[in-house]
Amino acid sequence: MPSIYDFSVDDIHGKKVALDKYKDKVMLIVNTASKCGFTPQYKGLEELYEKFHGKGLEVLGFPCNQFGSQEPGTEAEIAQFCELNYGVTFPMFAKVDVNGSSAAPLYKYLKAEKPGLLGSEAIKWNFTKFLVDRKGNVLARYAPNDTPESMAGDIEKVL
């Protein structure tokens, strides 16, 4: 059985990052987009990161252009947008697909570990979130309309 720590991903600057870097950390993994109705969640995600990073939380943002072409920019444009508009300091990664045959291996794993409603593995929209505990277990999957603030209690419990 693979573990979440077996995956490597490219960060938004094109550098390879092994997820075992986040062993013993709680991770909130989110597929993001810059031109979505949920884009203001970047603010709440950054607030969670600032509040809980010192206690072991990592927020990992994965831009995705599969939903309404709402993430059309380059990685450089996405990084600049996140920093300028929302002050994002949590790690952002290269654009990925989260559904279909070209879905990133990490997302195939997350969806298999924590299917959505009625057992569907498909990601429905931008800002779907996965909460992973310090041992790499995928604990929860949150819908796009679940705000970062509404997850704070769950995050605190696993920290």
Task: Please tell me the total number of domains.
Answer: 1
- Number of E-type strands: 6
Estimated radius of gyration: 14 Å
> CATH homologous superfamily - what is it?
Glutaredoxin
The rough form would be described as globular
Q: What is CATH's topology name?
A: Glutaredoxin
Question: Biggest sheet, in brief?
Answer: 4 strands, mixed
> How are the strands of the biggest sheet laid out side by side?
4-3-5-6
**H and E string:** EEEHEHHEEH
Which range best describes the helical content: under 10%, 10-25%, 25-40%, 40-55%, 55-70% or over 70%?
25-40%
Query: What is the number of helical segments per DSSP (H or I, 4+ residues)?
Result: 4
- End-to-end separation in angstroms reads 25 Å
Second CATH tier, the architecture:
3-Layer(aba) Sandwich
What does this structure look like?
With 159 residues, this protein is an alpha+beta fold. The chain has one domain (4-158): 3-Layer(aba) Sandwich (Glutaredoxin). Helices cover 28% and strands 18% of the residues. The chain has a 4-stranded mixed beta sheet with strand order 4-3-5-6, covered by helices on one side. The model has no long low-confidence stretch (mean pLDDT 95).
